[in-house]
Give the backbone structure.
Amino acid sequence: MTKQERAARTRRALILSAAEVFDQEGFAPASLTMISSRAGVSNGALHFHFANKNAVAEAVQGEALSVLRQIAHAWPEGTTPSLQSLVDTSHTLAQRLQDDVVLRAGFGLSGDTTWKERADLRRHWVDWVSSGLTVVALADDVATGDALAVIAATTLGFEAMGRTDPQWSTREMFTRLWRLLLPRISADNGTGPVAPEGTSAPGGVVPGPRWWPERQDAPH
């Protein structure tokens, strides 16, 4: 392994460790010593990559935002987005929030009042939902803004509550949400093919690969 490869591995290990610490402790109580110790590196190695705790948090949230953009990617041009796309993406988000500590920490930092973030994952999610609702078929008496308010508040509420009780960020919980909402907001009043449980294979949404390497030996 070259020096450059070792440095990249160390940086990624530090970001993963920071995400774990931020997810468990929050931004304010977290310390650089906690982060470096969990990563198995010295404080000096940490400072080689990051000037301070703010810089580490920015790196965590930047990586988390990249993951969210893979999940809630731009609506394809030339196609008509459907409510099914929104349902499926919400299930993927729920699954990834359980499996991916970097994504989870990024959302946590977005709602942490002790740190002023540059990237706001919650805002990105709301904007993505909003962009889809402007073109999907909604019931005639359902205003786009009303649908957005309910969907955004509920999905982000599940994310926030899932931080202390993981049952809130599950496929079952999101399915219950859509079973309640779809008959009201869908243009066909729920008689169409929109599946509240999502259209992925049985057993749940399969999350994409994690961006970090598995930790085998402590990085140097």
